[in-house]
Amino acid sequence: MLQAQATLVLILLGPPGAGKGTQAGILAKTLQIPHISTGDLLRLNVKGETSLGKEAQGYMNGGKLVPDDLILDMLFDRVGAPDCEKGYILDGFPRTLAQAEAYHKRLGNDVKLAALNLELSDDVIVERLEKRFVCSGCSAPYHLITSPPQKEGSCDRCNSPLVKRTDDDEKVVRKRLAVYHSQTAPLITYYSKGQSFKGVSCNRPINDILEEILDYLQEVAR
Ligand code: AP5
């Protein structure tokens, strides 16, 4: 089985609903490194009614990006934790050029960086998010048709109830897509200039995508 090299940083770029969380969850288990989703971290803050959560909630419900300074503080705090020493998977970060630049300025030279862009059309995304449910406990994503839970309404991993995300309402999804195209998609050019960048088509089964990613990570590790 592929094991993460010391300090592998895997960045998963891609529009909302492309499958970043789905792939990151499986890759984290396979590579035995943490899956860090800035969206999940923010939702935990919203649930815990922290000052960050209270500030972030309005942006998230409106489909807008949370300001860079709030995200960077939260992210740097998380990646500084001991479990990230051997590497980690970033899902949903960076989302702006300013986030990418601030992050790479802080990152040492001794990391192996791989950036993947998960590609999916807006129409398929709208359809997928309409049928998505997420675990209220561990945030694992499910889909009514393509990846239903074993027991209806409960998470396979932790048994917590499944819920709809408030930002999966179609109007908000369309706003998130517009924000993605204007503020986050430019990162594709930023990362494609580096050595370890790959686009991955995501309109196919989860396991086929996973296999392509794992093959690519084998190449990067060589
Ligand atoms: P965040 O939580 O990061 O959401 P997102 O990027 O919009 O992505 P999603 O979680 O919606 O989708 P995904 O790509 O993970 O897809 P999934 O695997 O679930 O961000 C939410 C909000 O937080 C943002 O709008 C913003 O306000 C804020 N935020 C977060 N990070 C920020 C940052 N860095 N800066 C500023 N603000 C930030 O899959 C989707 C569905 O498809 C699921 O139902 C799944 O089961 C299904 N599926 C997955 N793969 C397949 C497949 N191959 N075939 C069929 N179905 C599939």
Summarize the structure.
The protein is an alpha/beta fold and 222 residues long.
Secondary structural class = alpha/beta
End-to-end gap: 15 Å
CATH-derived topology: Rossmann fold
Please state the overall shape, judged from the principal axes of the Cα atoms.
Answer: globular
Strand content: 15-25%
Number of strands: 8
> For this structure, what is the CATH homologous superfamily?
P-loop containing nucleotide triphosphate hydrolases
Share of helix, binned: 40-55%
Ligands in the model, by name, code or SMILES, are:
BIS(adenosine)-5'-pentaphosphate
CATH C-level = Alpha Beta
The residue ranges in which pLDDT falls below 50 over 5 or more consecutive positions are: none
Detail the topology: elements first, then pairings.
Blueprint: E1 8-13, H1 20-31, E2 35-37, H2 38-47, H3 51-61, H4 68-79, E3 87-91, H5 97-106, E4 112-119, H6 122-130, E5 132-135, E6 141-143, E7 162-163, H7 170-184, H8 186-192, E8 197-201, H9 206-221
Helix pairs in contact: 1-9, 2-3, 4-5, 6-7
Bound molecules: BIS(adenosine)-5'-pentaphosphate.
